[in-house]
Amino acid sequence: MHNMIQQELDLINQRIGLMTVGAQAGLVSIFGDHWRQLIKRHDPRNFGKAFKAAVAANHIAGVKWVRIENSGRFDVYEKI
């Protein structure tokens, strides 16, 4: 799915599970210390696009896309 292997999907589900309902965050905040590991394997921009597309297609549960942060540099997601 969108070039995300099972390892990434497991991590995504784990990290989303740690969020409080209603909390909003960008991917760097969602993934915390794991972000550095992810960007060693994936281009951050491409990973962000794949993540957003997977959320829009309901392949990633528990979050929804909210907005592009005012800086315009990253997308914000909300735990639902």
Mind explaining what this structure looks like?
The protein has 80 residues and is of the alpha+beta class. It has one domain. 49% of the residues lie in helices and 16% in strands. A 3-stranded antiparallel sheet has the order 1-3-2. The model has no long low-confidence stretch (mean pLDDT 89).
What's this entry about, in short?
With 80 residues, the protein is an alpha+beta fold.
Query: Which structural class is indicated by helix and strand composition?
Result: alpha+beta
* Shape, principal axes of CA atoms: globular
Largest sheet: 3 strands, antiparallel
Total of helices: 4
Query: How many whole angstroms does the radius of gyration measure?
Result: 11 Å
Whole-number average pLDDT? 89
Number of separate strands: 3
Sketch the topology as an H/E string, one letter per element. Answer: HEHHHEE
Low-confidence runs: none
Determine the fraction of residues in helical runs and give it as a percent range.
40-55%
Q: Please report which band the strand proportion falls in: under 5%, 5-15%, 15-25%, 25-35%, 35-45% or over 45%.
A: 15-25%
What is the count of structural domains? Answer: 1
What oligomerization state is this entry in? single chain
How would the blueprint of this fold be written?
Layout: H1 6-18, E1 24-25, H2 27-31, H3 34-41, H4 44-56, E2 63-68, E3 75-79
Antiparallel strand pairs: 1-3, 2-3
Short descriptors:
single chain; alpha+beta; three-stranded antiparallel β-sheet; 4 helices; 49% helix; globular
